Amino acid sequence: MNQHTTVLIIATLLFLKCNAIETSQKSTNFLIFGHGGSPKTACENTLLSFHNAMREGANALEMDITISKDFIPFLSHDTDPKSPISTARRLGVGVPGICRPYISTLLERRSCFEMTFEEVQKYWTYTGPVAQENNIIPSFEDFAREMSSYNNLLVIYLDIKIPEKHLDVYLRKLINSVLNSAQTHQLRAKILWGTSSTKAVSIIQDESEIHKIPLEVNYSVEFVTKLPHDHKAVDKAIQVGTSFASPGEAFVKSVVFWYLKFITSRDVLKRDEHFSETGKYIGIISWTIDDQDQAKWLIKKGVDGIITNNVSSILNAIKSTK
After folding, report:
1. 34 - beta bridge partners?
2. pLDDT (tens digit, 9 = 90+) per residue, 279-299?
3. Cβ atoms of 26 and 304 closer than 8 Å
4. Burial of 214 (0-12, 13-18, 19+ CB in 10 A)
5. Half-sphere exposure in the Cβ direction for 291 (13 Å, CA)
6. φ, ψ at 35 (rounded to 5°)
7. How far apart are CA 239 and CA 314, in angstroms?
8. Quick count: other Cβ atoms within 10 Å of Cβ 314?
């Protein structure tokens, strides 16, 4: 997930048979999001990784999505191999699991917006202890086809990786293609869009009018960049009328978990007060949490979901809190 202020947009697909997330009241389904699938057992954002996360017990999946110059949405964190973040990730810095991105030739370090999807699959892959056939970067169409059989997949979170300068050209194409693929393959899960751009939010809202899809907006702020009194995720959710809020992610989790506890406690209190006064429930999703003890604390406190690199750890935390 993006470690800056992130706007999450949940698109409810009316033409699908969805396993609904209740937003007027607390859902009985605690959401366990596999972060890029199961990156500790397979390469992030690959079909094997998503299958593994579901086999481990996830009921939601988080993934990064971007688009090629021939308008094919595909699942990848990186869009430009020349960027500092992409360069660092190829060296193993900031990757969530066992694989690193790999560019097969120095001569092909173009951005994905300069490449067809066929070229992306030819030159971009992963390196790690996984068979090469499982390292292939999938299109969203591939994902929808593969994952449509999972009745227990409740939410698909798409973290949009399109730079601001490319939004006008590519975002509407991405949205329409994703919705078409979801409908074609009868994907039953809700789709949750993530972006740090208010311009992207505006474009998605325009598309929602065209497709008659109601949108809900959730602000998620990386809390290590905020002072405690400035970090009020649920307050922002109430202000804009959203159904979800996120306390944010700890950059150094073992050091600043006390901070997450502080702001989560305040957000839960505010959420419950708001629900008591208005009857409108705001779900709280924490990310990225792998530690079982931290997850147990968050579950007991009353959050509604966790994004994780370790699904089994969160499942064990849930079992131990019952």
Report:
1. 61, 308
2. 999 889 888 899 999 999 999
3. yes
4. exposed
5. 11
6. -80, 100
7. 31
8. 31
Whether residue 173 lies inside any domain: the answer is: yes
Tokens linked to 270: 């505010």
Reading the block at residue 185, the tokens are: 């393959």
Cβ–Cβ < 8 Å for 42, 134: yes
- Residues 6+ positions from 135 with CB-CB distance below 8 Å: 43, 46, 99, 125, 126, 127, 128
- Closest by CA to 190, choosing from 318, 31, 44, is 31
The mean pLDDT of 14-27, rounded to a whole number, is 50
In a domain, 308, yes or no: yes
Which domain covers residue 261, as residue numbers?
Answer: 6-321
41: tokens are 């057992």
CATH of the domain at 33: 3.20.20.190
Chain length of the chain: 322
Min mean pLDDT across 216-225, 240-249, 301-310 is at 216-225
Indicate the number of domains in the chain.
Answer: 1
Q: Judge whether 1 lies within some domain.
A: no
First CA to last CA distance, the chain? 29
Q: What predicted TM-score, i.e. pTM, was given to this entire model?
A: 0.88
Say if 197 falls within a structural domain: yes
